[in-house]
């Protein structure tokens, strides 16, 4: 029926109709064939650009991670060194209970030992460390007092002597009373904190 209607048309109308069909077919072919390829190429170009940016970010992140790893390693090494000079909980108790023995081995007689209640320091506690102190009063000669101080500071763990006071007991004797304030740092046990 369409063909019969075309046959009835004059030649100029037929040409115009044919041209219209060719133009419509050309646009349809363009839409079906070329446009998807153009969209694909545009998407591929956008993908390539995005992947380039991701690669740059990945390199930047990898570099930052490497720097952080080195910093962490340094902190671990520093922490291991620090833990070597700090008292563990059991060693701290042992140290304070052995003060009399340490003094006697140095040739001093213990007059008094008083544990000091230290003020809480939230910053140190956050770091996992507390300070513990004791006042030690001994009687002995000067040489023995020096031996005692040397014994206290010869330990693997760090012992601070915050205060020393020497009082001569008798002018006829070389004996004196020495008062020491001793401080240690103790690592807080993780299971008790």
Level-2 CATH architecture of the largest domain: 2-Layer Sandwich
Q: Which sheet architecture does the biggest sheet show?
A: 4 strands, antiparallel
- Helical fraction equals 55-70%
CATH superfamily of the largest domain: Ribosomal protein S6/Translation elongation factor EF1B
Shape field: rod-shaped
Please give the radius of gyration in angstroms.
45 Å
Hey, roughly how much beta strand do the residues contain? 15-25%
Task: Kindly name the structural category.
Answer: alpha+beta
Distance between the termini: 96 Å
Instruction: Give helix and strand order, one letter per element, not per position.
Output: HHHHEHEHEE
Describe the overall structure.
With 193 residues, the protein is an alpha+beta fold. It has two domains: 2-81; 89-187, Alpha-Beta Plaits, CATH 3.30.70. It is built from six helices and four strands, in the order H-H-H-H-E-H-E-H-E-E. The protein has helices at residues 2-8, 11-85, 89-97, 99-105, 122-126, 142-153; strands at residues 109-116, 129-141, 159-168, 175-187. Strands 1-2-4-3 form a four-stranded antiparallel β-sheet. A hairpin with a 6-residue loop joins strand 3 (159-168) and strand 4 (175-187). The protein is rod-shaped and about 150 Å long. The chain starts with a helix and ends in a 6-residue tail after the last strand. The mean pLDDT is 85.
Summarize the structure.
By secondary structure, this protein is α+β, with helices and mostly antiparallel strands.
């Amino acid at each position: 029926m369409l063909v019969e209607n075309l046959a009835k048309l004059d030649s100029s109308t037929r040409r115009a109709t044919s041209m219209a069909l060719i133009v419509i077919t050309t646009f349809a072919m363009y839409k079906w064939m070329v446009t998807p390829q153009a969209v694909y190429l545009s998407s591929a170009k956008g993908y390539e650009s995005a992947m380039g940016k991701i690669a740059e970010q990945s390199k930047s992140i990898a570099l930052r991670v490497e720097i952080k790893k080195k910093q962490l390693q340094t902190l671990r090494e520093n922490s291991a060194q620090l833990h070597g000079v700090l008292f563990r909980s059991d060693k701290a108790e042992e140290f304070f209970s052995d003060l009399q023995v340490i003094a006697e081995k140095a040739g001093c007689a213990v007059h008094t030992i008083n544990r000091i209640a230290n003020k809480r320091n939230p910053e140190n506690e956050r770091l996992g460390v507390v300070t513990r102190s004791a006042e030690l009063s001994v009687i002995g000669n000067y040489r023995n007092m020096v031996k005692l101080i040397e014994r206290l500071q010869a330990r693997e763990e760090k012992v601070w002597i915050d205060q020393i006071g020497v009082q001569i007991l008798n002018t006829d004797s070389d004996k004196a009373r020495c008062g020491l304030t001793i401080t240690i740092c103790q690592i807080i046990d993780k299971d008790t904190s």
